Amino acid sequence: MARILIADDSVVVREYIKQTLERAGHQVIAEATTGYEAYHQYLTHRPDLITMDINMPELNGIETVKLIVKENHAAKIIIVSTYGLKPLVFEAIKAGASDYITKPVDEDKLLGAMANVL
C-alpha cells in the first residue's frame, strides 16, 4: 500500500484518481489544488508517490516537480496531464517526474505507471 498525494486543480479528476487508488488498496494522504499547496503538502506528509497535473494555479506542475525533486531527488512523481506532446513529456521527465500519463485518466494506465514507479 502506497501513501499518495494527489495534486490537481480539478475536483472531478482528484476524486476519480482517489477512488481508483483506494480501490487498489492505496491510501490518499493529501490533496492539493495548486502547485504551492502540492509542494507544502509534500513537505508535510512525505508521500510515497505524487500524481501531479501540469496546469495548476500559482505554480505549474513542472515547476512544482522541480521544487520537490530539489528537496528529495528520490521523490516519485507521475504527471497526469491533458497534454501528451512529446516536448512537454520530455520537459516533465527532465524536471524529475518518474512517469507521464494523459487524461482522461485510464485506471489500468494509472495503476501500471504506479507499479513501474514504485
Automatic annotation (TrEMBL):
<dbReference type="InterPro" id="IPR052048">
    <property type="entry name" value="ST_Response_Regulator"/>
</dbReference>
<feature type="domain" description="Response regulatory">
    <location>
        <begin position="3"/>
        <end position="118"/>
    </location>
</feature>
<protein>
    <submittedName>
        <fullName>Response regulator</fullName>
    </submittedName>
</protein>
<dbReference type="InterPro" id="IPR001789">
    <property type="entry name" value="Sig_transdc_resp-reg_receiver"/>
</dbReference>
<dbReference type="GO" id="GO:0000160">
    <property type="term" value="P:phosphorelay signal transduction system"/>
</dbReference>
<dbReference type="InterPro" id="IPR011006">
    <property type="entry name" value="CheY-like_superfamily"/>
</dbReference>
<keyword id="KW-0597">Phosphoprotein</keyword>
<feature type="modified residue" description="4-aspartylphosphate">
    <location>
        <position position="53"/>
    </location>
</feature>
<dbReference type="Pfam" id="PF00072">
    <property type="entry name" value="Response_reg"/>
</dbReference>
